[in-house]
Design goal:
Number of strands: 0
Order of helices and strands: HHHHHHHHHHHHHHHH
Radius of gyration: 21 Å
Number of helices: 16
Strand content: under 5%
Oligomer: single chain
Helix content: over 70%
Length: 350
């Protein structure tokens, strides 16, 4: 009798576990299919020039506007946009030749700090001038300067931002960053920047890691590697930015209890893989070309799936009704950031 009494509860628990697993697997399959469609879109005249990564995110954004967000498989989509993105970045470390970027990398943290300070201050100044919502504008300034939606998610509990504000901010970052990344790929052939300098520019000025990868990939592996290094320097500064915000909120008595800082551990993975690729593979360990090419293909496709998840966060209706002024402030700040970093790289101080 006792076992019979427990069986319904066990059955309900099993159904919940199965439902959760189905949501995860379904979301992963969903992003996989749209990523495959990204390859198909490249067959359309003109799309080959922006690459498969941009094609995947374009399809995802269009899907969201037409059919809405597929809530039933949200868990799997979030897995793709977060975990697969981090996996792809770690694997990209194998492509980083430290000897190529070390002389560039020493000054990148200083530049990254300047980018963060500029982005936040300019966004808030413009927001005040436009009479935009302060919390939304601060979230967007931090997202622009640090690492997009990941930074927004990290600081939202500290700022006591509402879920709606967090979601809208992440959507704006996804939209503006995607547009900028695609624009970069279109402008690159007409710019008088070397591939390495173009990579640094992308890493310093674009919003999400996925956007940096999207913009820098057409310039080659070295450009992509140094772009990720530049961007990951900003990601690395997420922790000190959070600490500063926590100190500020504590001083004003507004810190939310239990706020935590999530350290970007995948940055460590990226650097470890960079060391392995630079000093071990090819010297002490020789891998077959087929395996190396396979890892490269897996890395690229994982990025495509991650950007599908990113694109699905973009809802034009929310942007139109709730965040036009913060969007305007962030857009102007992003344009100024791109122009300023380009000018500094094109005409460095002697």
């Amino acid at each position: 009798m006792e076992s019979r009494a427990k069986s319904p509860a066990v059955s309900v628990k099993e159904r919940l576990v199965a439902s959760s697993a189905g949501s995860v697997s379904g979301g992963i399959i969903f992003t996989f299919i749209i990523a495959l469609m990204g390859y198909g879109l490249m067959a359309v005249p003109g799309f080959i020039y922006i690459g498969q990564l941009a094609c995947a995110i374009i399809i995802a954004v269009a899907y969201r506007q037409i059919f809405g967000y597929p809530e039933r498989v949200r868990a799997g989509i979030q897995f793709s946009s977060k975990m697969l993105l981090r996996l792809a970045i770690i694997l990209y470390g194998l492509k980083l030749n430290i000897q190529v970027v070390v002389h560039e990398g020493l000054g990148l943290l200083v530049r990254d700090a300047g980018v963060i300070i500029f982005s936040i201050l300019v966004t808030l100044i413009l927001a005040k001038w436009l009479k935009a919502d302060f919390t939304l504008s601060l979230l967007l300034g931090i997202g622009t300067g640090v690492c997009g939606a990941a930074a927004i998610a990290a600081v939202s509990p500290i700022l006591k931002a509402k879920d709606e504000e967090t979601a809208i901010s992440a959507g704006i970052i996804a939209l503006v960053g995607s547009v900028f990344a695609i624009a970069y790929t279109i402008l690159r052939p007409y710019m008088e920047l070397t591939d390495i300098t173009y990579g640094i520019w992308s890493g310093l000025s674009l919003h999400e890691i996925a956007h940096v990868a999207l913009a820098a990939a057409p310039a080659g592996e070295d450009a992509l590697a140094v772009a990720l290094l530049s961007k990951l320097g900003r990601v690395f500064m997420l922790a000190p930015v959070c600490m500063i915000l926590m100190y500020w909120r504590k001083r004003t008595g507004k810190l939310q209890a239990g706020s935590k800082i999530e350290f970007p551990w995948f940055l460590i993975g990226f650097m470890v893989m960079s060391f392995i690729g630079s000093y071990i593979l090819g010297k002490h360990i020789i891998l077959p070309d087929a395996l190396i090419n396979g890892i490269s293909a897996v890395t690229t496709f994982a990025l495509m799936m991650a950007m599908v998840g990113l694109g699905l966060n973009v809802c034009f209706r929310d942007l139109r009704t709730k965040a036009l002024r913060p969007l305007a402030a962030m857009l102007i700040a992003s344009i100024l950031l791109s122009a300023l970093t380009w000018a500094v790289l094109e005409h460095p101080l002697k």
